[in-house]
Design a protein that fits this description.
The protein has 315 residues and is of the alpha+beta class. 36% of the residues lie in helices and 21% in strands. The chain is built from ten helices and 14 strands. One of its GO terms (molecular function) is homoserine kinase activity.
């Protein structure tokens, strides 16, 4: 019986300065597997089982689960391509909290598509898969965007092109940066977090956004990481979304006092992240966040780096 599994890591959408066009994968330095996993085996009829720490937060109806929708969408695309499919049994290990700002839905979607593509002998290339992943992500968030699915699938830090090929470009990484991340335990809907934003931004804000993103990309390629960190400020979403996050301003203030290079909201929140120049600094910020930002027993903190490897397939 053919069987394999796909692990898709958590991710930071936007990375503060790149609203909807920048994303980064996350990997805790202590080896904790922060992400969702999908197992796939041959079967006589399709089935989906959900397990894991946050499985109880998912819809009780299997047909409503995004992984089920991924399977049906994948089969539709296979049929259009004139390729055969067969029923499979899927198991979703739901390890990421829903509405956390860690790319929870993207992780499930990416793991599902990666598992299906590998199981059926890789019928779709990287860009085609990314477009499929973005389409399903859009069904949840209300708009197609790749700032979580791209880094989750490919690893690293990714810049979205707005084109169908290539969908995304990989940016250079700084191996000396550590990310203190903290999920508070509350849930923030991506759709709700979008609704709180203005429908238009003024000229000055648009110019600042473009300037910061341009400087950031140049600085990474030039290896000037101090310059890159200096422009990691969110002028689009954070001024509005931070009102949804209890303790955000205090957490930012502590992070800055500790000397962190940058502090921001991961995706739509409530997860926050601090970019730190050392592991010790990141551990200090993470300890504060654990003590002061977490709201309930679902919350957690990790010290992470950005992995160059994204989704992992294993037998």
């Amino acid at each position: 019986m053919k069987a394999l599994k796909a692990f898709a890591p958590a991710s930071i959408g936007n990375v503060s300065l790149g609203f909807d066009v920048l994303g980064a994968a996350l990997a805790p330095v202590d080896g904790t597997k922060l992400g969702d996993e999908v197992e796939i085996t041959s079967a006589e009829s399709f089935s989906l089982e959900t397990v894991g720490r946050f499985a109880h937060k998912l819809p009780g109806d299997t047909d409503s689960n995004i992984v089920t929708k991924c399977y049906h969408y994948f089969c539709e695309q296979m049929e259009k391509a004139g390729k055969p499919t067969s029923p499979v049994a899927l198991t979703l290990h739901k390890n990421l909290p829903i509405g956390s700002g860690l790319g929870s839905s993207a992780s499930s979607i990416v793991a599902a598509f990666a598992a299906l593509n590998a199981y059926f002998d890789t019928p779709f290339d990287q860009d085609t898969l990314l477009i499929m992943m973005g389409e399903l992500e859009g069904q949840i968030s209300g708009s197609v965007h790749y700032d979580n699915v791209a880094p989750c699938y490919l690893g690293g830090m990714t810049l979205m092109t707005g084109s169908e090929a290539p969908v995304t470009l990989s940016l250079p990484l700084n191996d000396d940066w550590y990310y203190a991340i903290c999920y508070s335990g509350i849930s923030v809907s991506t759709a709700a977090a979008r609704d709180i934003l203005p429908k238009q931004v003024d000229m000055a804000t648009a110019l600042t956004f473009g300037r910061q993103l341009g400087v950031f990309v140049h600085a990474l390629h030039a290896g000037n990481f101090d310059l890159a960190a200096s422009v990691m400020k969110d002028v689009i979403a954070e001024p509005y979304r931070k009102s949804l996050l209890p303790g955000f301003d205090e957490a930012r203030a502590f992070s800055e006092e500790t000397g962190a290079l940058a502090f921001g909201i991961s995706g739509s929140g409530p997860t926050v992240f601090a970019v730190c120049s050392s592991k010790a600094q990141a551990e200090k910020v993470a300890a504060y966040l654990t003590e002061n930002y977490i709201q309930n027993e679902d919350g957690f903190s990790h010290v992470c780096q950005i992995p160059s490897q994204g989704t992992l397939i294993s037998e």
